[in-house]
Amino acid sequence: MAQKKKKTIRMIPQARTPMREQDPLVRARNFDEVNCGYLVEDALLEAERCLMCPDQPCVRGCPVNIAIPDFIAKITEKDFRGAYDVITATNLLPAVCGRVCPQENQCEGVCTVGESLEPVAIGRLERWVGDRAIKEGWSNVPYIEPNGFRIGIVGSGPAGMACAADMAKAGCAVTVYEAFHEPGGVLKYGIPDFRLPNPVVDAEIAKLEQLGVRFECNTLVGRLFTIEQMIDEMGFHAVFIGTGAGYPSFMGIPGESLNGVLSANELLTRCNLMRARDFPNFDTPLQPGRQVAVIGAGNTAMDALRVCLRLGAEQVRCLYRRSRAEAPARAEELHHAEQEGIDFHWLVSPVEILDDGQRNVRAVRCVRMALGEPDESGRRRPVPEPGSEFEIEADMVVYAIGTNANPIIGQTSRLKLDKRGYIATDDDLATSIPGVFAGGDIVTGAATVIEAMGAGRRAARGMKAFLGLRDTDFVYQERPGGAADTLFGIDRAEHGYARVRLPR
Predict the structure, then answer these.
(1) Cis peptide bond prior to 94, omega within 30° of 0
(2) Is pTM, for the whole model, over 0.85?
(3) What is the arithmetic mean of pLDDT over 215-225?
(4) Which of 37, 380, 434, 435 has a CA that sits 20 to 30 A from residue 274's CA?
């Protein structure tokens, strides 16, 4: 058989395959998904752009180490189910991650093709495979032999779901506790349908349920019962905490207690999870106001801006103290917001929210900023310009300037916290309480969906070591001088590969 010729930059399609989108003027008034996804022919064309690099920098750039060239190769072979199996070996949420992960800073950011051309659209291909799996009803559920261990997961966001999946595959009985009335965490309450439709999240959650994962909603751990009770009284052998960092930040300027001031968390939760956008069909009123000012320029700010526009606001303004170049939002989200008519005010910082005389928001007093020397983040520090104050009319102000650690778990347990109030962990994501692990935003602060999933998987590896379970992700070798029928002293006939737990 003739050896397949190695691909070079000159041999592949030079231009990135575009993705269809809703017209900006149309989508600005509906909650339908903006990006329409690839067709089969689009996916096949884009997959041909992958060079199948032997060193695979894209895999190293992925927080959950998806075998990216392998799944793309399956697409080129038209083995679409095979592509799904490759992805879901490490990531059970391809339709989610393909939509919301910042691929430009991760796998695509280190793509070899990107050194000369636009990088391979890895995220779009992952989304296409995930969407096809949902449409076709594919699942990747291995044979699982129960091992008798019970695992409790606190929080059903991406970190919790990733940890739950790995522990369920290991044979554990997994229960996930969610404070809200629906599972999904930030994927449900924090990301609008026009970016991540709820049915997509529900379909991915169903894959976890097929693994045997049980979800208990309307359960606020720390109030109904504590972490210690889960270990000492409820029979859980290990617990993972993935409650996120959902406590909103404010600036502490005058006027923040006025009617019409709220956090992006509240706005998005009311709109996304509690269906305020469908009022009065759902009993969640939310009046966005006529003139809305959103403070911040991250992804959450972009979501808040675009939600207010779709809820009927006449004018929506973004106030950000740095320039466009420093905005932390994904380039695509910023571009979409600009297309839809969001009014951006760069190098502007609020100093006071003004009262209309009846405790309602009337306007925002701002000061113009200039960029000085870099701060600890590496970005140039914004400095107020003397005498530059001015007012912006507004009857609603939304804060989207970051979040803090969810305080409930820390307040109701003996867990060691860091100076910022986040849960302190070791390299295996083990906490100060034996058998209790934590990961995602509650440990690191606000990060990406895929980074949270990577933390959930890392914590699962720590849990397996704690419980004495064989980690199926680890390649075991024959013990030197050992018997042929053992693997590191484990009887090959034992399906569960149980090990004796050793002191750590």
Answers:
(1) no
(2) yes
(3) 96
(4) 37
